[in-house]
Structure formats: C-alpha cells, structure tokens
Amino acid sequence: MFRYASCNEVLMMVMGSVCAVLHGSAQPLMLLVFGMLTDTFIEYDIELNELKDVRKVCVNNTIQWKNYTAFSGMNQSEWAIMNNKTIPCGILDIEYEMTNFALYYVGIGAAVFVLGYFQISLWVTSAARQIQLIRNLYFRQVMRMEIGWFDCTSVGELNTRMSDDINKINDAIADQVAIFLQRFTTFVCGFCIGFVKGWKLTLVIVAASPLIGVGAALMALLS
C-alpha cells in the first residue's frame, strides 16, 4: 500500500505515528491526573473534618488527641489505641496543589493540541504526495495504451478509476491510520494504567467489557 512512498514520506509517516501514540496516551494520563486531584481533595477533607473536633490538635504534622484524661470512662490503654491512628495534617497546601493540577491540565491540553495537529497533517500530507504520484503514473499508463483500448473502455470507467478508486486509497493511507494508532494506544495505555493503579477494579471492568461491546454494537445498528 505504501510502495510509492519516498524516504521523506516514510519519515513523515513515522513522525506522525509517534505523535499519534503520544496523543493516544494523553487521555489515560488526564484520567490519572484527575484521580490524583480527587485523592488530594479527599485527604484535605479528612483533615478538615478531623480538626473540627475540639479534642484534637495538629502536632508535628499529625492529628492527635489533646489529653486522654478528658475522656470520662476511658482508660489509658483505650486512649493509646485511639491515639495510634495517626492522620497527617498541616502538610497539604490545597491552593498550591490545585494550581499544580491546573498546570498539568494546561500542559497536557497544549501537548494534545500540538500532537493532534502534527499527527493529522503529517499523515495527510504524506498521503497527498503519494496519491499525486499514483495519479500521474495511472495517467501515464493510460496515455501509453493503443487507440483500440479506448474503443473498448468507456470514459466513465476512466473517470471512476481516476477519482473514486484513488480516493479510496487516499482514505486508507491518510488520517485514518493515525486515528487508529491514537485510539489503539488509548486502549492499551488505559488498561496498563488501570492494572497498575487498581487491578481488581480493572478486572471487573474487563469482565463487563463484552456487555459494553454488545451494547455499543446495538446502538450502532439502531442509529
């Protein structure tokens, strides 16, 4: 399919493929950043709820009970068990953390914009050059045919081959390849991150994926 590609066009396709792979890995990365953001909110909320209790105080970046003697009916051993449940405090600067996450999203968004542009433009430009060469070669071969061949071949067939058939080749070697690489990378990276961060939940999702696929197929047929 790519037999008419020159060295420059092969290089363009390779660079476009690299951009497509990086673009495809950006969406799972954004979900990972969102999970980190959610964890930060939860930790900050836990810290605030713990410090609302007047009997607790933040000492050496750890939430501790003020004095076990203040609890009626609780002996020292029971208080020691409760006090061993350490919760960090005073470490998390929520404004600083949210600013960092916002910068992460801006950086990922800018990278996706640039990678998406080069991903499509490189593949489309490479395909356009190859299609131009194919058109020239086809026209050159037609012009070399004997006059009797034109008597047996209709003009409509020549136009169809010059337009429709070559356009089908263009659709096969242009941006569709880049989009396939992007989505395949998103699929693979998503499962890799899922198994690393939470393999149990990922296994549940994998078990339910056939049902999701059947539902998507039914929606595609009905639409």
UniProtKB/TrEMBL annotation:
Keywords: Cell membrane, Endosome, Glycoprotein, Membrane, Phosphoprotein, Repeat, Translocase, Transmembrane, Transmembrane helix, Transport, Ubl conjugation. Residues 14-223 form the ABC transmembrane type-1 domain. Its main location: membrane. One of its GO terms (cellular component) is recycling endosome membrane. One of its GO terms (biological process) is oligopeptide export from mitochondrion. GO terms for molecular function: ABC-type oligopeptide transporter activity; ATP binding. The chain crosses the membrane at residues 12-37, 102-125, 177-196, 202-222. The keyword Glycoprotein applies. It is found in: Apical cell membrane; Endosome membrane; Recycling endosome membrane. The keyword Signal does not apply. It is a multi-pass membrane protein. It comes from the Eukaryota. Belongs to the ABC transporter superfamily. ABCB family. Multidrug resistance exporter (TC 3.A.1.201) subfamily. This is ABC transmembrane type-1 domain-containing protein. The lineage of its organism: Eukaryota, Metazoa, Chordata, Craniata, Vertebrata.
